[in-house]
Amino acid sequence: MGLSTLDLFLVGAYLVGVTAFGLHFRRSQHSIKDYFLAGGRLPWWAISFSIVCAETSILTLISTPGIGYTSNLHFLQLVLGYLIARFLVSFILIPRYFAGRVQTAYQLIEQRFGGPLKVFTAGLFLLTRSIAEGIRVFAISIVLDIILDTNVFVAVVLVTLLTVVYTFAGGMAAVVWTDVLQMVLYLGGTLVALALILSDIPGGWSEVVSLAQSNGDKLSLFDFHFNFQEPYLFWAGLIGGIFLSSASHGTDQLIVQRLLAARSERESKMALIMSGVIVFLQFGLFLIVGVALFAYFHHFPPSMEFDRPDQVFPYFVVHHLPTGLVGLMVAAMLATAMSTSSAALNSLASSSIHDFYKAFIRPDADEKHYLRMSRLVTLGWGAVIIGFALGAQYFERSVLELALSVASVPYGSLLGIFLLGVLSKTASARNTFIGALAGLAVLSTVMLFTEVAWTWYTAIGATTTFLCGMALTRWEAHSRSAA
Predict the structure, then answer these.
(1) How far apart (Å, rounded) are the C-alpha atoms in residues 237 and 223?
(2) Which pLDDT score, from 0 to 100, does residue 211 have?
(3) Sign of the CA dihedral 404, 405, 406, 411?
(4) Inter-residue contact 100 to 111 (CB < 8 Å)
(5) 5-397 in CATH: which number?
(6) CA-CA distance, 154 to 141, in Å (whole number)?
(7) CA–CA–CA angle 250, 160, 188 (5° rounding)
(8) Of 415, 429, 472, 464, which Cα lies nearest the Cα of 444?
(9) pLDDT tens string 165-175
(10) Phi, psi of 42 (to 5 degrees)
(11) Is residue 468 within 8 Å of 438, Cβ to Cβ?
(12) What is the Cα–Cα distance from 181 to 284, expressed in whole angstroms?
């Protein structure tokens, strides 16, 4: 079932409109601070919306309703940890970033430990972020295959190139303000879809509640059982969410760059904390959509078997929404894809220029040169992401599991390094680096040889890195005193 002419027009209008809107910000780019931090002039609420968009990929929009469809609301236990982590990052790391007057997260590591460890952390970010973003972009093809009957190459290249155009021209200002528009679009589209689902179900919300309670209590929120192999239990979600979000929002340039673009440290904290509240409400909405779809398809069985939960929401959009709203929801799905891609492109380029090019290749060039190179590097990362996206189709694992695994591997060590730098005055660069390698080794062993749930990965890596670094520091101090 293809899209109607009206739906195709709406999708095309969105793609052209958001690209043109992003290009508008080219006029305000005069330096790399303008390009990568929007001159430090962005309001906190816009940054907050942009943070939410940056962590809301197309995987989130299609996979979270699938979780609600097949299980319950236990995923929110993880999101509760996300919210708590925002407060920790706000009071532990954000003051250090503003005091250090840095433009990337990894310059803080350089100030504390020196250049080699900065290169290690920034290099780890560039590698894993580009691979993970390629996987997310590949997820677009899964959705567009159902909706537009297109192929992987066309879907990946089309969305990436359009995103590159406005990110290349407008920098961080274009990224943030297009994120604001895109967030309104995908949340508005999801709310409209939920309203239509409930209006079509005989009995509406009361019927959803009745069916949810009689099929494993799909509206249950907490599960206090303890099992290291299950990801969505209370302690796994809470602890795992705290560590994962502390790493992603405190050490990942993708988010830190937005925090540094705020007008003040206070506004940066406000943006981060409010983003946690929005994310909690957003995930709640997506999960409720999944539970409502369970009731909907109970009354109106689908014409196909779902091979994976990710297909449930896109199938409903194509086959059950009226003309016009289908185009709105397809545009909403593309909005999530483009927002995460623009965020990744700008952060990858920022780290490349500040942590490598400006530091080691051309330290004394003028602003015009750095601005020109920033745009060229943005184009280069666009090509890299397309390559990883096209390669992701040859992996047999689900794209959600693949993306989570790639992101989880470095986050633990990165968080451990940052915690050693901030909380310990005596940890050396050598001991911290050894701790990071130990964290990667232990986590790799856990992933390969155990059934421990992915929600524990960042906690395991961070704890190993921090404890190993502290133990080596204490051992060295004891050895010196004994000598």
Answers:
(1) 10
(2) 92
(3) positive
(4) yes
(5) 1.20.1730.10
(6) 8
(7) 70
(8) 464
(9) 888 878 888 88
(10) -80, 140
(11) yes
(12) 21
For the chain, domain boundaries: 5-397
Give the position of tokens 């796994």.
236
Cβ neighbours, 10 Å, residue 30: 12
Which residues, in sequence order, are bridge partners of residue 42?
262
Burial 365-398 (b: 16+ CB within 10 A, else e): eeeeebbebbbebbeebbebbbebbbebeeeeeb
Q: What is the DSSP string of 334-371?
A: HHHHHHHHHHHHHHHHHHIIIIIIIIII-TT--HHHHH
For residue 289 the two structure tokens come to 């959509």
H or E element, residue 194:
helix 152-200
Please answer whether residues 310 and 398 qualify as being in contact, where contact means their C-beta atoms are separated by less than 8 angstroms: yes
Where b means 16+ CB within 10 Å and e means fewer, 199-233 reads eebeeeeebbeebbeeeeebeeeebeeeeeeebbb
Please report which confidence band the pLDDT of residue 422 belongs to, taking 50, 70 and 90 as the band edges: very high
Distance CA(357)–CA(378), nearest Å, equals 13
Say if pTM beats, i.e. exceeds, 0.85.
yes
**267: pLDDT strictly greater than 90:** yes
Residue reference for tokens 């593309």: 334
Reply yes or no on whether the pLDDT at 150 is more than 70.
no
The three-point CA angle 18-22-28 to 5° equals 160
Token look-up 């206070």 returns 266
Give pLDDT, residue 361. 93
Task: Output the six-digit token pair for 219.
Answer: 């509206």
Q: Report how far residue 458's alpha carbon sits from residue 407's, in angstroms, rounded to the nearest whole number.
A: 9
Instruction: Please compute the mean of the pLDDT values over residues 143-160 and round it to a whole number.
Output: 72
Q: How far apart are CA 217 and CA 107, in angstroms?
A: 48
Per-residue confidence (pLDDT) for residue 123, from 0 to 100: 92
Report the C-alpha gap between 92 and 98 in whole angstroms.
11
Q: Cβ distance 326 to 3 under 8 Å?
A: yes
- Cβ proximity of 183 and 52 under 8 Å: yes
